[in-house]
Amino acid sequence: MDYTLHRRRIEFQGHTRTFLVVEPSHLGPHPDLLLFFHGSLQSGNVMRRFTNGTFDELAQRTGTVLVYPDGVDRHFNDCRAQLPVAARELGIDDVAFTRELIRLMRAEFSTSRTLACGYSNGGQMVLRLLFDAPGLINRACIFASTLGEGANHAPSNPESAYIPTPVLFMHGTSDPLAPYEGGVAGIDAARTRGPVTSAEWTARHFAALNGADSRPQITAPYPGVKLRRWEADNPVELLTMEGVGHVIPSGNEIDPRLGATTDAFRAANVVERFFGLRR
């Protein structure tokens, strides 16, 4: 292992918050910072295993400081109106917590750009940051999450506060929890996260917010994968994975309840390209 893993905890707004820091063995004077927000019922350490260590490896080979925040009671207080979890009931301010993490990493490592990935509930947390902390994140990647539909899209800020930001989406067409074509998201009827828009509608919406071309360039970079790219100073990309479930392709076996995965590519490599990380 060519990096150091730090387990940290801080007292913040009356709660003990925990997070993991992956510190590469070779850091430049102003490394990038990558925040990775886990999904529902996960943790930072679970996310490291869920992605088969591929993002730890990305951090090491690109000299990127990687932080895995832990949500309160294994959830983040995301931007959907319907979120029946403790983080919402307790009014957890995960936007402020994210700002504090960035401040701490800048103080310790002199980090420059701030990049963010999020999966499922963590993807919704990244969506919240894009609207409720405009300009805080320089680039974003969202796995298996789409915008809430109608009143279920409920960030604190109006959309007019959004600052154009490059955004990458990855979504499987057979996702059983966050439907690719839109619908009701959630684990079951008792834990629904309300209606959500489709993956393509979400990507097109961000493309419009970013002032991108209305018609995307469409390519097939991997077997069973379609890439739509809306070109602009702040581009938007949607990687559609045919027959794939609620996953982050990482070359490992996953719980079959999440659906199928693919070995056609590694998500970490696509993120490295889109974020322009240095080797």
From TrEMBL:
Gene3D superfamilies: alpha/beta hydrolase. Keywords: Signal. The keyword Signal applies. This is LpqC. It comes from the Bacteria.
